[in-house]
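Notebook, p. 212. Picked up where the previous page left off. The plan for this session was modest: take the two constructs that came back from the sequencing core last week, fold each one, and keep the raw output in the notebook itself so nobody has to go hunting through shared drives later. Recording the first one now, exactly as returned: residue sequence, then the structure token string.
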Amino acid sequence: MNQNQNNGSKAYLISIVLVAVLGGLLFGYDTAVISGAEKGLQAFFMEAGDFAYTDAYHGFTSSSALIGCIIGSALSGFLATRLGRKRSLIIAGLLFFVSALGSMEPEFLFFKHGVPTYSLLVMFNFYRVIGGIGVGLASAICPMYIGEVAPSNIRGMLVSWNQFAIIFGQLVVYFVNFFILGDHIQPAIEEMGRGIAAIHPDAQWTVTTGWRYMFGSEAVPAGLFALLICFVPETPRYLVSIGQDEKALGILSRINGMQKAQQILSDIKDTMTVKTERLMTYGWMCIFVGVMLSVFQQAVGINAVLYYAPRIFGDMGMQNPMVVTVVMGVINILFTLVAVFTVEKLGRKPLLICGSLGMALGAFGVALTFGSVGLELVTAISIMIYSASFMFSWGPICWVLIAEIFPNTIRGAAVAIAVAFQWIFNFIVSSTFVPMFNMHLTEGDDFGHWFTYGLYGIICVVAALFVWKLVPETKGKTLEDMTKLWKK
């Protein structure tokens, strides 16, 4: 007991961080589940009798969750400030759960099962948007929660575990989709007339049932998260902001030990003296850096790979694109661990700069070799380099910086703005990838292939320059130090 009072309890800290990173796992699960389900879903709605399900409809349906992500992240600052971090995460968990069941059975109560119509498509997208709102909330508040409970000397590592959970969630859903698909095949989408698909008989199970199981599988981790988050404490910094200093001290002492807790509480109260500071109190550069970190994390184009991986590998002529996608997921996990275990030693900036240059190398490699006969392996390796470089840099480190770079008094609102920009650019990248990738200057050329990845490569180089010139190093600094840093 005395030992815990002096040093705090690592077990207690780890237990509450593990619950919080479940939100990150759901974030990854929800955004990647579409990769295995989208072909079956497309074929299902192409059989509708009252409208033609075109590529434009499918592009919107595949990315409709991102609209919810924008809404959820924009609301996150308001909810985190008014309801607290914990209750906001409970709401996110419930939204995940409702979305999983609703996406699996969008006909519930109002429509006949298995009959595709325009109204059913609207209802399906409604449930996907609901899940997206949960993702938007979790994406902003999970790293904020971890950043506000973690000691400064290991904060970067613990927030990086949130990104590990996101990538792990994507890997889990790749496996889940793979096992749900089993011996069944994905439908080959061939339009016949007004958008109706010609579906091979062996693919019928995937069209009628497979995609439902894929979306419904999310209900298990969503329900677990919504339940477990009820048992974690509110963050000390939020408790101080609403005048509950005793509760804050109790939580801080359990994590850090009593002596250290009293010092941290004093520092928090010093920066909380003015609770209603305006967003621009610390200058426009503070907000600009946070927003641009979010913009670059998406503009480098990573989600074009993560969301469309099976389709990309299929276009490259791979015999089993789902297997290659799972391999890529494993590599992503391993390189995310590189960031987790080096972020406190190497710092945030070196990892971001190295990752940006590695991504540029991979993107230019894809641009130069995609579609070239005999260079398929080089293209696949380039995609892996591109993806792995993101996983030890922009993937986790962007979330670390967003969680810690803003002063206490504006953190809720500033994080909400930064993460909203992240989802806006996620939507832009995801919705423009297929049209850009399929562009042709002359019939049959590969202009779209090299233009798309060449553009991503150039953006990666610009991102490296941005980090080098404008992003402050936050390694080893307390959250309260951010106030002093931006006041200079």
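Okay, moving on. Second construct, recorded in the same format:
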Amino acid sequence: MSKGPRTRPAPGQAASPVPLPEMPTAVRPRPSGEGAAEPAGWALVAYAGTSLGRIFPLMPGETLIGRAPAMTVALLDSEVSRRHARIHFGMGSEGPRLLLEDLDSTNGTRVNGEVIQGARELRPGDRLGVGGHVLKLVAMDALERAFHETMLDLSTRDPLTGLANRANTLSELQNRFGLSLRYDRPLAVVMADLDHFKHINDSLGHGAGDCVLQAFGDRVRANLRESDLAGRIGGEEFLMVLPETDLGGGRQFAERLRKALAAAPLGLPTGELEVTCSLGVAERLDPDQEPGQLLARADAALYAAKIAGRNQVCTPPALG
């Protein structure tokens, strides 16, 4: 019989609850009576394309736009070149000056529907066309930015963990799988399931279960690269999508995550709780034509990890 989660009462007094994870786009109110409103900042807001709703702040200097994960504005779209365009943000005699330059992209860069030649100075409200994306140049103050980011959170993030929600995760997987297939680049996925989570809810209550989910979301974020994606796709089930990663790299990521959770008990109001997870890893193979094939292998590997005793990482059996 498998053992359930173990709790250790905190000495002296009850441990503090696991703190809520800090949302990357949380709205932080300005204290009352504090100075004047913050000056407007320049940003690109995605009005169309797979990044719909996202805000890309523009900082003085260069902003690179392209498909490569290392770009400042990374747009995962097969119609976008790896290095597609560049924005230079400088200061002129009359204030900020933004110049857009196409970097010999395959499909060109458009401003307000017209393909640009050479450099083009941008004005507030200009619409940049990059592949299937439309990015609008806006000057927004802190309140307006907080509004846009909150609306994006409501539509794409899981409110409990701060990770991507199920719909956004599966949509992003479809996009990244398509790029991996078209350009024959490696792609790995990791499916994770919290061990004995039902017992935690049944014995300690759903509040404790929520604390565990929040803490796991923190551990996941701490191990992600900028180009990776993590989402909650079920009650206690999570999916991590790792571009430019093969099976070995995916397994290393999964092991780091497993150890990060198992190494330190979580503090709950009832005491300390030891929590573990099981993980399944798979990589895109040449025969794969749709992401469901990749997910099926990762799910089978996750099932194998749970059958083998939990708190471990498994990969699909080698193909003969």
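Notes on construct two before I forget. The helical segments are 142-156, 166-183, 197-204, 206-222, 247-262, 291-307.
Flagging for discussion at group meeting.
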